[in-house]
Amino acid sequence: MFLLVILAMIAGFMALQLYRVLGKRTGHEQPLPKPAEDRTPLTLVPRTVETIAESREPASRLVEPRAEAGVRTIIAADSNFDVAQFLQGAQAAYRMILEAYWQGDEEQLDWLTQAEVRDAFVAAIAERKEAGHTLENRVVSIEKAVISDAALEGKVARITVRFDADIVAITRDADSVVIAGSMTDAVDTHDVWTFTRTLKSSDPNWKLADTDEA
User: Phi, psi (5° rounding) for residue 142?
Assistant: First the structure.
């Protein structure tokens, strides 16, 4: 009997200590989550220059300040436009267009570029063929791609992208002798390309409309 009384006292003491530690709120506890049926639905936030979930990068790394207003205008006109996805596509187009030019693939250039740019590329390809020159160029890496300017002209969106890339450039003559470039040294290139697209058109592709060097 005496042992039972001792055990009961010990149990009561432990319960009191647990109450002191766990039973009192200190004011720093996080509120318990509501049951699923009582939770307020999350409001979807429209994509803006500041809210680019897919990229996981600050917008400042993707869009230069001077282009932010233009990007917002394009997003307002086309809610499906996404900055990070556009830049991924622009980098892919950068590689594809350069490779098509280097290889003399005029058909590829036709659907990737606007007529004026395509004509300039085709003319350069013709001059190269006439001289008997071939190019063995390749894009080693694209170090940076950032939107440097953007505007909406009517329904036509224009976005300028600045590319910083490393390119191996080699030119061979008709006898396959290297006359320019090196297989081991990549060249730092800085290109400024402008892409255009008619928003909400059936054609989802952006086409290269202008090229320049940074």
Answer: -105, 105
